[in-house]
Amino acid sequence: MQLTDDYGWLSDYDAARPYLQQEQRYFESITRQWSQQARQLLQDMQQHLAAVQLDDPPEQVGPFLYFSTSNPHGPDTILRRCTASGGQQVVLSAGIMQQDAAQASRLLGVEVLDGQLGGVKLSSDHRLLAYSLEVHSTQQQAAEQYCCVVRDIHAGRLLPGCVLPSASSFEWSADSSRLFYCQPDHLGRPSKVFSHAVCQVCQHQQQQQQQQQDELLFTECDPKHFVTLTRTKDWRYVLINSHAKLSSEVHLIDAGASSSSGCRPGFQYDGSAPLLVEVYGAYGQVLEADFRAHRLALLQRGWAVALAHVRGGGEGGRRWHAAGRQLRKPNSVSDLLACLQLLLQLRVTSPGSIAGHAASAGGLTLAAAVNAAPQLFAAVVLEAPFVDWAGSMCNEAAQHVLTEHEADEWGDAAQQPQVADMVARMCPYSNLQAGVPYPAMLVTAGLQDTRVPFWMPVKYVAKLRSLQAAAEASAAGRQQQQQQQVTQGRRPILLQIADDGGHFSIGQSGGAVEDIALQYAFLITATQHVTAQQAAAGR
């Protein structure tokens, strides 16, 4: 696909940097207007979280009982275990991670982040613990890169010869003598499997020498396939799982050698309640209707919350997923609109009182629904949204790590004209139109995001704001000018940027309650403005 894109220059970070800085200043100036609301929401959320904070139930693994504990006065202990004498032993804590990250940083010569824990694997003899920590990435590096370290639990120390610079997943051999690990390529695609000899005696062996001894066991050359490692419960085999969207294969290593919506009940609605609808609908993943304490901050303010289970997700099984991918992707959008129409018919909410939230691939569905029915929405939060579908399929984006890997989910526009036509009709970014009253938008972008590159949300915001500015500049007549003054600033278009962040760095995706409070303050403020505007118009 060849496209003409007025904002294509924003895909160049160096060229886009002044624009990004300007966007960040604008974001900070606007969010200050409702910072008090955000602080109150944060306080309420923290109270709700404290009220429901429960430790995970203990789990018997071999001779030990493992469990986690929470400390209201300090960092959590991530993992403890009961000893044979009845005492407790700390296996992993924030303090241990901090010490190990500092030592790994010195050994590797890069910054290892102590607060970003990846996987955790115990050896079969319960003596060694392997776990991964995120490595700080630069503009030239893929984000979500992890190193792996090994601790001797009994000795209470890190093994210097077992600090692996890059490991996306890992598993122990049955006798704990080797650690199998998967290494990503330069684009961040896990593709190679190595075997690393664990040396507990030669503690001061040089790291470079250790790496040279690692044995390459497997290489996946197909760019559509990602590789992960798991093991069987009996410790007999380590499994090399090479998987694409529609196919997978498994290789064995001898380990001995190794459409529904849910609203929280208890409230009566009369059609005037503001509504938060969340949607995903891709990859066969289930949007779980589980309990989230932070939603109580909205519910106690009279909001309703709905989860839209649209085709493309996994709520209805594999057929449900298949009915919302490739050429059937428009079903995801029509299902979301059908969910909203049902909630309107049930008088849960009213047009213009709906707020939307979606992340990543769910951002395409929500943004396309906004294009189709903007009058329904007061405000929308899009976290690292996949909104430039057409741009991701063009030749210029061919080096993106997910382009080939995603063909099974989204189709191949370069080879299938029907897919290209559908993409042209559905792409949220390409189909933004002048003169449309779009809702307030809060869009996030991680500059180190390797799944949805930063230029997607950045271009989306730039085009949207340009269309909004053109509409305001072309407004004619005193009444329109007065109305413009009344509504100016009430439907802001905001871009929140994480300079060092990857795909899961801001908002609900990142899990930081401060970000969620900021998002809710934005949604509440924007929805109140629309409600006031409708009341002033006599509706």
From TrEMBL:
<protein>
    <recommendedName>
        <fullName>Prolyl endopeptidase</fullName>
        <ecNumber>3.4.21.-</ecNumber>
    </recommendedName>
</protein>
<comment type="similarity">
    <text>Belongs to the peptidase S9A family.</text>
</comment>
<dbReference type="InterPro" id="IPR051543">
    <property type="entry name" value="Serine_Peptidase_S9A"/>
</dbReference>
<dbReference type="InterPro" id="IPR029058">
    <property type="entry name" value="AB_hydrolase_fold"/>
</dbReference>
<feature type="domain" description="Peptidase S9 prolyl oligopeptidase catalytic">
    <location>
        <begin position="291"/>
        <end position="526"/>
    </location>
</feature>
<dbReference type="Pfam" id="PF00326">
    <property type="entry name" value="Peptidase_S9"/>
</dbReference>
<keyword id="KW-0378">Hydrolase</keyword>
<keyword id="KW-0720">Serine protease</keyword>
<dbReference type="Pfam" id="PF02897">
    <property type="entry name" value="Peptidase_S9_N"/>
</dbReference>
<comment type="function">
    <text>Serine peptidase whose precise substrate specificity remains unclear. Does not cleave peptides after a arginine or lysine residue. Regulates trans-Golgi network morphology and sorting by regulating the membrane binding of the AP-1 complex. May play a role in the regulation of synaptic vesicle exocytosis.</text>
</comment>
<keyword id="KW-0645">Protease</keyword>
<dbReference type="InterPro" id="IPR002470">
    <property type="entry name" value="Peptidase_S9A"/>
</dbReference>
<feature type="domain" description="Peptidase S9A N-terminal">
    <location>
        <begin position="3"/>
        <end position="258"/>
    </location>
</feature>
<dbReference type="InterPro" id="IPR001375">
    <property type="entry name" value="Peptidase_S9_cat"/>
</dbReference>
<dbReference type="InterPro" id="IPR023302">
    <property type="entry name" value="Pept_S9A_N"/>
</dbReference>
